[in-house]
Amino acid sequence: MPGSTDRFTDDPAFAVHEGGKLSVRTKGAITSIEDLALTYTPGVARVSSAIAAEPELARRFTWAPRVVAVVSDGTAVLGLGDIGPAAALPVMEGKACLFREFADLDSVPIVLSTTDVDAIVDTVLAIAPSFGGINLEDISAPRCFEVEARLKERLSIPVMHDDQHGTAIVVLAALRNAAKVVGRPLSDLRVVVSGAGAAGVACTKILLEAGIGEIAVADSQGLLHAGREGLTETKQWLVEHTNPTGRTGTMVEALAGADVYLGLSGGSVPESAIAAMAPGCIVFSLANPTPEVDPEMAARYAAVVATGRSDLANQINNVLAFPGVFRGAIDAGATGITEGMKLAAATAIADVVGDDVRADYIVPSPLDRRVAEAVAAAVAAAARAEGVVRG
To answer: What pTM does this model have?
Structure first.
């Protein structure tokens, strides 16, 4: 019970979450019969009738266009894994808090007691009229790919699986600036990605779009290459679009002479593997809470080191991306989120750092209020330029 003494009393995190982190409040007071009549019946009937006759009026006279649904089935939550919908809800509430704080957008956390792809898709389609965007969150691979693809095909509002694309956007922004630090173009870098899950696949795709020099992806069985059997459709796509020299073997072996390590898988990487990378290498070790590569060790060999941790320099944090991406897409009236919009978001994040870039400052602080505004403007401009907006 609130206020009682129990094992959670001394942990400040539980105090923040007591009773949940969200509430819904009215924009105007209801203090008179006239207020009641305008807010509810009979005044609301006039508005509902107008929307029934002209559905586009819902964008003006309801909250839906500026509200994001944060949807999860609880199968891939943070580094905790498949913990179920109830345990995932505090994370989704937290995401809603970040939307409000950084993008001035309302959002509603929704956790689903199903892991069936058809059921998830049907449920989101059914509730979509209440929202202006769908943020998919913590849905495990490979189901997350199908869920997102099917919803994007059916809905004319922005849909984004943040574990994939938010991570990818920030990784690209960070790598752009890390490349500046070492004085190399992206097209000159050889990257080894550890992890072929949601984040690994999305990061690989956006780096390819950005013109990376060479990239190879490893899963738990080693490098993905032509000849590997039993691959999922997604991993087969990676085989066809990465590893142009046909490298085989382990991820550790592939790191010899590599310019960039991008860790998105957990586990640990031996010091000898980092020591074998090219001089002036870049190490992004993003597993949380324990990076795959010890940051202090990595700093002995790498010119730039980044992690997912807030207590270290160069935190690769999705909050740099998703609030501004959805704000910009919604502001522009975008019917979806394109690759061009994601690339624009990455460039905007990198540009906030600007000329101040250095080895320990390749991305802005997650608390830098300039970021969401810059990302929103860039994403909205890209949406308009690509013509993916409502007339």
So the answer is: 0.91
